[in-house]
Design goal:
Blueprint: H1 2-11, H2 29-40, H3 46-55, E1 70-73, H4 83-103, H5 106-120, E2 125-128, H6 132-150, H7 158-182, H8 193-209, H9 213-225, H10 232-235, E3 236-242, E4 245-250, H11 257-275, H12 284-300, E5 310-311, E6 316-317, H13 332-342, H14 348-359, H15 384-387
Parallel strand pairs: 1-2
Antiparallel strand pairs: 3-4, 5-6
Bound molecules: 2-acetamido-2-deoxy-beta-D-glucopyranose (NAG) (3 copies).
The site of one 2-acetamido-2-deoxy-beta-D-glucopyranose has 8 residues, from strand 1.
Length: 391
C-alpha cells in the first residue's frame, strides 16, 4: 500500500529506530489542507463545523486562560476540585489551533501559545482521588494534540516548547505510566476500559509530541497485549455476526452507555494518532474497533444487540445497560471517516450514529463547550465533521 511504503521509506532510520512525524497526531498537514479547502469553498457540511467552531467562545483570540499549580479531580476531603479550569483551557488551545490553521490568522495561534505557556509555567501536579488518573489521561492526550497543532508556529519559542514537553512528561506521562503499570494496586480487571484507554492515548500523544519512541511503543504494546481492560481484546471482548454485520460487545456495555460510548471516543483518537505515525490499529484483528463501534452505535440508536453476561472481580452484569442509552458524544465522525470514507468498509450503524449526533448538534459535531459545562462534554475534542470527514 502506497501509504505504508511512504512511511517506511521516510521514517526508518539507519539504526532501525524510527522518527516520529509532525504534525502527526489527530491531523496531518494533508488534513489541514483539506479542512481549509472545504471551508474556503463554503462546502457543506464542513462549513457548518467551521461555523460551530468560530461561534464557540473557546476559539476566541481573547480567550483568557486560568492555569493552576495543582489540578484536583475527585474530592479528596480537603481540596475543592478545580479541573474544569484545565479542561476548558485545553479545549480552547485545541479550538484556537484549528482556527489558526484554517484561517491563517496568527492572533489565534498567539492566544493558544498563551494557554500552553501559562500552564507549562504553572502546573506542577494533578491530584484529588484516583480520578486524577482520568484527568491525566483525557487532558494529557488532548493537551498534546493542541500543542502539536501549534508546534510549527514561529511565535511559539523553542524554550517554551521544551518546557511544555517537560510538563507533559513530569505531570501527565508519569501518571499515565504508573496507572497502566500499577492500577493503584487494584485487581487488573477492576478499572473499566476507559481508564486504561485514556492513559494509553495520553502516553501515545506525549510520546509523539516529545519525540520519545519508548513512550509511543509502550502505548502501542499495551493496546495489543496490556494486562488491563484497555487491551483491545478485553475492551471489545465478544464478537457476534448479525445480518452480516460483525458486532463487538464492549467491556462497559453492561455498565452504562455514557461510558460504553466514551470507549469509542478514546479508541478513535488512539487509532487515528497511531495511523498518522504508520501503525494501523484500526485494521488490527480484522477491524475490531469497528466491530465495537457498530455494536455500541446500534444499541444507542435504539436497536437490539446480542449480549453475553459479563463478570469481573467486582460485578456480574447479566443484561446490557440501558442507562444513558442514546448518549450524544461527538465521536463518530472520526471512526466513520476512517472505516467508510477511507477504507470503503460497511460501517452503517456508526454512520447513523454520526448523523444522529450531528442532527442533535446543529448539523455538525461541536467541541468542548457545545455539550454542556460538565466534564462529559470535554471527554473528546469533537469538531469531527470539520476535521475528519473525507467525503
Ligand atoms: C485549585 O485547587 C486548589 C486547592 O483546592 C485551590 O487552592 C485553588 O485555588 C484552586 N483553583 C481554583 C481556580 O479553584
Ligand atoms: C523517553 O521516555 C522514557 C520514559 O519516561 C525515558 O526513560 C527516556 O529517557 C526518554 N527518552 C528520551 C530520549 O528522552
Ligand atoms: C432498562 O433496563 C432495565 C433493566 O434491565 C429494565 O427493567 C427496564 O425496563 C429498561 N428500560 C427501558 C426503557 O428499556
Amino acid at each position: 500500500m502506497l501509504y505504508k511504503s511512504i512511511i517506511t521509506l521516510s521514517f526508518l532510520l539507519g539504526n532501525g529506530a524510527f522518527a516520529l512525524v509532525h504534525p502527526g497526531m489527530l491531523h496531518t498537514d494533508a488534513d489541514f489542507m483539506r479542512m481549509k479547502a472545504k471551508v474556503d469553498a463554503d462546502a457543506a457540511p464542513w462549513i457548518t463545523g467551521w461555523n460551530t467552531l468560530t461561534a464557540n467562545s473557546h476559539s476566541s483570540n481573547t480567550y483568557a486562560p486560568s492555569p493552576q499549580a495543582i489540578v484536583y479531580r475527585g474530592y479528596d476531603g480537603t481540596h475543592p476540585e478545580n479541573y474544569s479550569k484545565l479542561y476548558n483551557d485545553v479545549h480552547a488551545a485545541y479550538a484556537l489551533g484549528l482556527r489558526w490553521k484554517i484561517s491563517g490568522d496568527d492572533s489565534f495561534a498567539d492566544a493558544a501559545v498563551k494557554i500552553l505557556n501559562g500552564w507549562s509555567s504553572t502546573l506542577t501536579a494533578i491530584r484529588g482521588t484516583s480520578d486524577a488518573a482520568l484527568a491525566a489521561g483525557i487532558y494529557g492526550y488532548q493537551f498534546a494534540n493542541a500543542a502539536e497543532i501549534i508546534r510549527s508556529y514561529s511565535g511559539w519559542a523553542a524554550a517554551d516548547q521544551t518546557r511544555f514537553k517537560t510538563m507533559l512528561h513530569d505531570v501527565f506521562f508519569s501518571i499515565n505510566h504508573d496507572f497502566l503499570v500499577r492500577h493503584n494496586d487494584a485487581e487488573l480487571d477492576h478499572y473499566w476500559a476507559n481508564w486504561d484507554l485514556c492513559n494509553m492515548a495520553s502516553m501515545l500523544a506525549i510520546g509523539i509530541f516529545n519525540d520519545n519512541t519508548t513512550m509511543y511503543e509502550e502505548a502501542i504494546t499495551y493496546f495489543k497485549s496490556g494486562l488491563g481492560n484497555g487491551r483491545i481484546d478485553l475492551t471489545v471482548w465478544k464478537l457476534y455476526t448479525v445480518d452480516g454485520v460483525v458486532l463487538g460487545q464492549c467491556q462497559e456495555s453492561g455498565r452504562d452507555q455514557g461510558h460504553a460510548t466514551l470507549d469509542f471516543a478514546l479508541l478513535g483518537p488512539l487509532a487515528q494518532m497511531a495511523y498518522n505515525q504508520g501503525d494501523d490499529l484500526f485494521g488490527y484483528e480484522s477491524n475490531k474497533i469497528l466491530a465495537g463501534s457498530e455494536y455500541t452505535a446500534k444499541y444507542n440508536l435504539g436497536e437490539d444487540v446480542p449480549y453475553t453476561s459479563y463478570t469481573n472481580s467486582d460485578v456480574t452484569q447479566s443484561v446490557i445497560s440501558n442507562a444513558s442509552r442514546g448518549t450524544i458524544r461527538p465521536a463518530w465522525e472520526l471512526i466513520y471517516a476512517h472505516y467508510h470514507d477511507l477504507k470503503g468498509l460497511d460501517s452503517k450503524y456508526t454512520g447513523q450514529m454520526r448523523d444522529l449526533v450531528n442532527s442533535e448538534s446543529g448539523g455538525a459535531e461541536g467541541g468542548g463547550g457545545n455539550y454542556g459545562p460538565n466534564s462529559g462534554g470535554y471527554d473528546q475534542l469533537g469538531y469531527g465533521t470539520l476535521a475528519f470527514r473525507l467525503e
